[in-house]
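Researcher: We're teaching a course module on how sequence relates to structure. For the next exercise, students receive a sequence and then see the predicted structure as tokens, so they can try to spot secondary structure elements on their own. Here is the exercise chain.
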Amino acid sequence: MKKPEHEFFSVTDVAFTVCPGDDPKITERILAKDPETGVATRILRYEPGADSTPMGVQKHDFWEEVYILEGSFTDLTLGRTFTAGMYACRPPGMPHGPWRTDEGVVTFEVRYPA
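Model: And here is the predicted structure for the students to work with:
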């Protein structure tokens, strides 16, 4: 199976839902998802004060590209803050996070199989 076909639509028609990890300050809008692989295109939102430390360092078995649309967050492992306009491309297995934000952050992410 592949991600579904969509013509243009308003992303605001897609509700934010709480991400895996159950922190209500970390939510996502799933724009397209392959139900077999779980890879997705999404908008990720960390509200001000969100902290993903309980989820630990993340590693995925898929490619992940991330563009920061608004705000900033800090990778606590690296001790570096990343801001709006910055981009990351992570191959499968690349460690990242956990993250914390004071002001909040919104990212656009595309995930695809290895």
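Model: If you want an answer key for the exercise: The beta strands are 17-18, 26-33, 40-46, 62-75, 80-83, 87-90, 99-100, 105-113. The mean pLDDT is 94.
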